[in-house]
Amino acid sequence: MARTKEASNRDKKEKKDRIQKLAAKKRLASKKGLKKPDARVGGIIRKKRRYRPGTRALMEMRQLQKGGTKKQRRCLIPAATFRRIVEGITDEMTGALGRDKRVSSRFLQGLREETEAELRHQMEIAFKIAIHSKRKSVDKPDVELALQLSESPSTHIYNERT
């Protein structure tokens, strides 16, 4: 039996309807933040959130600047790296004496927090120096000047007088 023009038009209309339904499903899925259905799992996978450039960095800064207890604050220096540095320094110091070295984890944690606090303080001073010289970025001379200012004997003399 030969195909008639009517059957051909009906097929085209059905195909067009299927395409429109599929497009509607995709729009709905994108509005909900969903991807296409996963055949392996049988469910719908959530689409990974995409932030605009700079938003993620600002979120991390806010998280790091958030106050709270010491346990809530996350250290920036990795623990293993800091431990290796401390062990290297203690090796140099105890090598001449011929003693064994032992450092408790609580001591290392406290030392790490204090080191970070001092570094943060020095960087704040260096940043203020950079702003004073009408720049937005911190350079090597700014950090050197901040170190010199923190080591200056004039602050010790002033503290002795009061």
Describe this structure in words.
By secondary structure, the protein is mainly alpha-helical. The chain has a domain at about 75-160: Orthogonal Bundle (Histone, subunit A), CATH 1.10.20.10. The chain has helices at about 5-30, 55-65, 80-95, 105-130, 140-150, 155-160; strands spanning about 35, 45. The chain has a two-stranded antiparallel ribbon. Strand 1 (about 35) and strand 2 (about 45) form a beta hairpin. Helix 4 (about 105-130) crosses helix 5 (about 140-150). The mean pLDDT is about 80.
Describe the structure using short key phrases.
162 residues, mainly alpha, Histone, subunit A, two-stranded antiparallel sheet, 6 helices, 2 strands
Summarize the structure.
This protein has 162 residues and is mainly alpha-helical. Helices cover 65% and strands 4% of the residues.
